Amino acid sequence: MRIAVLMKQVPDTDDVKLDEEKGTMIREGIGAVINPLDLHAIEAGRQFVEQDGGTLSVFSMGPPQTEESLREAIAMGAHTATLLTDRKFGGADTWATARTLCEILKLEGPFDLILAGEKATDGETGQVGPEVAAMLGIPFSTYVSAIEKKSDGVIVTRTVEDGYETQFLPFPCLLTVLNNLNQPGMPTLAGKKRGHSATLKIVKAADLSIPEDELGLIGSPTRVSKVFYPKIQRKCEVYTLSDIRTGIERIVRELKNRALL
Fold first, then answer.
1. What 3-state class would DSSP assign to 38?
2. pLDDT tens sequence across 35-74
3. DSSP states of 165-177
């Protein structure tokens, strides 16, 4: 069985800053980690390969520093790791990102199962996985919280707003997973040594059969038209000492007006 994981490196901080002119994230000078939900995808792939044999390959598109996260993925159990890095990939929206990932999956595949985290913490769109599946023409499922592997496909449990859904997807297919799918294990010393010495495959724009006008910011059909930082403003009323009773009456009146009391 051949399994692929789509992994993203994200800023290791909530203090994300944007380039107000380009509308893209500023990644330079910020610590980076594997997107938390992608850790669960890697762990799921590792478990399947450990149980039934096969290979686990991890793919990521990003700046050169993404190499660190790919080595960590190998330490966690991946057999191979591929980094797509090129200035021409920079500024890609979800469509251009999926287009690039789809091309490398075609070149390195075919894969029986493709896994990814439900969304990335720096974008929160949850679009790349489904877009990749649509471009590859394979079935997919999102919000996956449980996976049961069968000989010809997988039975998955999806966590949705009103409960759970169960689906069967034949191979090949793509799944985006949630954090309650499993508990990612810590890399062993042997795993860290393997990750440190592993040879990563580096892919440039010239290695892919994609026109340059379909890559990165140029090939992105969506644009961030304006960047602004919201100002939190609150109008406060303070009641102290002799005004406490007035304040309580004010709160009660407001709650009644809002039909909360």
1. helix
2. 999 999 999 999 999 999 999 999 999 999 999 999 999 9
3. EEEEEESSEEEEE
Beta bridge partners of 33: 10
Three-class SS state of 143: strand
**Diameter of the chain measured on Cα atoms:** 76
Burial class (CB in 10 A: 0-12, 13-18, 19+), 84: buried
> Minimal CA–CA distance to 181: which of 93, 113, 252, 115?
115
pTM greater than 0.90 (yes/no): no
pLDDT digit string (tens) for 97-124?
999 999 999 999 899 999 999 998 887 8
Complete domains list, the chain, with CATH? 2-214 (3.40.50.620)
How many CA atoms within 13 Å lie on the side-chain side of 158? 16
Strand order in the sheet with 2-6: 163-170, 153-160, 140-149, 173-177, 113-117, 2-6, 55-61, 80-84, 201-203
